Amino acid sequence: KNIVILISGRGSNMEAVVRAARDQQWPARIAAVISNRADAAGLAFAASHGIATAVVPNKDYATRAEFDAALRTVIDGYAPDLVVLAGFMRILTPEFVDHYAGRMLNIHPSLLPAFPGLATHAQALAAGVPEHGATVHFVTAELDHGPMVAQAAVPVLPDDTVDTLSARVLKQEHELYPRAIRWFVEDRLTIEAGKVVVDDSP
Ligand code: GRF
């Protein structure tokens, strides 16, 4: 299976996926890593691992629809079976999302449905919740609301700051996202009545 990963910055989740795919010999290849920002740090890691990279700068396009159309053309040039959003910081049009229905995953740094949107760690601290975490979900038109594939929880500790809490969550993300993507490439995920069913048999 061909996987295309979209990033906007650091790319540590992309890195975790690239390493897992290689170390665990997934029946899949990372066909390309694509960024909307030329300065995304993750592009260098991908290139140094022999993965094709591309930049589609959103600032070159007057409208979201034009950017999404250009991005879709570049993505589809790699014939992806799965599109992985890994810190890709753009809201996508419904047309784009529909085109990849059932074959686009995102990781969101909260225990959805709690704290959709931005600044999730600050939101969690402000709310005083005892637990926080991350969610992998299929992407649908409504932001951070698609069918959930997997979650990982961490405790919120009394002295936590955004930095300490986000680091604790990120460590879990690097386990969670590769596990969920591996299920996809091994055909273990089905969506039934809007809910994801995982076939976790050996
Ligand atoms: C992660 O926390 C992810 O959950 C969120 O954006 C962050 C991206 O980090 N969507 P990285 O670029 O993968 O290091």
From TrEMBL:
Family the UniProt entry places it in: Belongs to the GART family.
GO MF: phosphoribosylglycinamide formyltransferase activity
Pathway assigned in UniProt: Purine metabolism; IMP biosynthesis via de novo pathway; N(2)-formyl-N(1)-(5-phospho-D-ribosyl)glycinamide from N(1)-(5-phospho-D-ribosyl)glycinamide (10-formyl THF route): step 1/1
TM spans (from-to): none
Name of the featured protein: Phosphoribosylglycinamide formyltransferase
InterPro entries in the record: Formyl_transf_N, Formyl_transf_N_sf, GART, GART_AS
Binding, (6R)-10-formyltetrahydrofolate: R64, M89, R90, I91, L92, N106
